[in-house]
Amino acid sequence: MSKKVYIQSLGCPKNLVDSEVMLGGLIANNYEVTRDPEEADLLLINTCGFIQPAVEEGIDEILQLAEIKKSGFGKRLVVTGCLVQRYGSDLQKQLPEVDLFIGTQGFHHIVQELAKLDGGIKNEFKISNPTFIMDSAVPRVISTPAHRAYLKITEGCNNRCSYCLIPSLRGNLRSRKIDDLVQEAIMLASAGVKELSLIAQDLTAYGTDLGNKAPQLDDLLEALLSSSDIPWFRMLYLYPARINDRLLDLVAENPRILPYFDIPLQHISEGIIKKMNRPYGRREVDKLIEKIRVRLPESAIRTTFMVGFPGENDKDITELESFIRQQRFAHVGIFTYSNEDGCEAQKLPDQCSEQIKEERRERLMKVQSEISMELNQKYVGRTEKVLVEGLSSESDLLLEGRTIYQAPDIDGCVYITSGECTTGDILDVKITEAHHYDLVGELVESR
Questions:
Q1: Percentages (nearest 5) of helix, strand, coil residues in the chain
Q2: Which of 22, 176, 217, 398 shows the smallest number of beta carbons within 10 Å?
């Protein structure tokens, strides 16, 4: 008789892939997925521990599942991921309701660990130095819509940004081999994937841990293009200091690699960038953006900025606002700095108050909202390729999709008001309206 698992995956797409690996192992061992935690035999939550709001969200969700666990005899509650890796055995002491804790190392052995629970072990705790890196032979069940998926090309990170816990949570950089990534892409293509998003903590670091003559990101992209017929490849997270001419040329020459550049800059003030321990300055950033726009004038650049970093002052924010107005990015996320135990930035003087952080965030988001509205107006009257996602989350009367300039789950979408099509189709849509973050359009041809 099969058992039922309810799984909740918090945090980033990289964490989602880990959840899909756990699902793959569980389903291969006679589990079936349920969306109702009340009927589940196994309650599984894969947590994020990157910043304090994510920690708080994780704890809240664990406590909610702990209450549900009480309602059924024999239910197991398992907590995995970055939150476990970050707080270690303190969680075990504070959450006795949890049957099993697994950090960022060993989650792929979840079936074996569950077997130990069946043998009578209680409140088991598994945490060690992260060294695991998945490969195409590891069972994985895609939890995104069937027409899109993520391909995690590395694990860990060798960058040492002063505000970031990722190296301590995920370990040092570990790149997968090109042949293995190609094999996984072929399997995903055969399953009907139309958009494959390459993800890593830093895509442009791919291969740098394998030696001077090791393949790099552009080599991987060429291999993926030649070995599969997936129509859209999207790159998520490109470190600004490592984007080279060869990569830009490859994107310009191959329309299947989407001209979408996700480049988190974090700040533009020289003093703040230096305190963040990021090895570039304003001049390098301006030069990079100009190069992208000259080589790929129709490309979309997405970035994120962090406000309220220790030592940040009004002059720094004014400079950042001016930079945002000047560069007119397609998509911008603004986040407030959060002190995290174990990060160098926690020890820096001149910490900003929460009120100042939020005021600065709102100020910059207002600027970007105006820019986004103006930029979206240029699409009105144009016909764009749109990947159809299905019925809109806003209304069953609308379809929803995305252009090549909109990444899943983080950017806006296109609301399709007329025509018939199938989820996963890539079709021409004539844009009829523009809003701050979303577009509205009609299918040129329906299926």
A1: 40, 20, 40
A2: 398
Q: Model confidence at 131, in pLDDT bands (50, 70, 90)? A: very high
Alpha-carbon span 187 to 136, nearest angstrom: 9
414-416 and 399-402 strand pairing: antiparallel
Running DSSP on this structure, what letter comes out for residue 193?
-
Calculate the alpha carbon distances from 377 to 163, 235, 332, 414, 436 in Å.
37, 25, 17, 13, 9
Using pLDDT thresholds of 50, 70 and 90, give the confidence band for residue 120.
low
**pTM of the complete model:** 0.94
Length of the chain: 447
Residue 320 has pLDDT above 80, yes or no: yes
Q: Is pLDDT of 413 > 60?
A: yes
188 burial type by CB count under 10 A (0-12 exposed, 13-18 middle, 19+ buried): buried
What one-character DSSP code corresponds to residue 177?
P
Count of Cβ atoms closer than 10 Å to residue 369 Cβ: 13
Going by their DSSP bridges, the two strands 76-81 and 100-102 should be labelled as parallel
CA distance 270 to 260: 26
What is the mean pLDDT of the segment spanning 15-27? Answer: 96
Cα(203)–Cα(216) distance, rounded to whole angstroms? 9
Helix 282-295 to helix 245-253 angle, to the nearest 10 degrees?
20
Q: Per residue in 195-227, is it b (16+ CB within 10 Å) or e — as a string?
A: bbbbbbbbbbbbbbeeeeeebbbbebbebbbeb
3-class DSSP assignment, residue 287: helix
Coil, strand or helix at 389: strand
Contact 428, 384 (CB under 8 A): yes
